[in-house]
Amino acid sequence: MAEVKKGLDGATDSLYANGLHIAGERYVLTKVEDDNKVLYARKGKDGLVIGKTVQAIIVARYVDPMIAGNTAETVQKLVDYLVKVGY
């Protein structure tokens, strides 16, 4: 999780180059949005959407045949809501 936190704090160059590791699996960083508050990573047809709030890091995993966009939308809305209420 240390490399995820670094990515959410803006240090994404090494994540783009080397990927990020969650639960022993390597994911390729594909996109960073919303001023480094949301990271997108893939491993084949599966992937992660990771969001940052004031007090929490949300990690959502999707697997084939789930749709990445649905996961991303859910995480983004949850991040926006939690930030709005100060969490």
UniProtKB/TrEMBL annotation:
The keyword Cytoplasm applies. It is found in: Cytoplasm, Cytoskeleton. GO terms for cellular component: cell cortex; cytoskeleton. Keywords: Actin-binding, Cytoplasm, Cytoskeleton. Gene3D superfamilies: Dynein light chain 2a, cytoplasmic. Pfam families: Profilin (PF00235). Its main location: cytoplasm. GO terms for molecular function: actin monomer binding. Belongs to the profilin family. This is Profilin. It comes from Botrytis galanthina. The lineage of its organism: Eukaryota, Fungi, Dikarya, Ascomycota, Pezizomycotina.
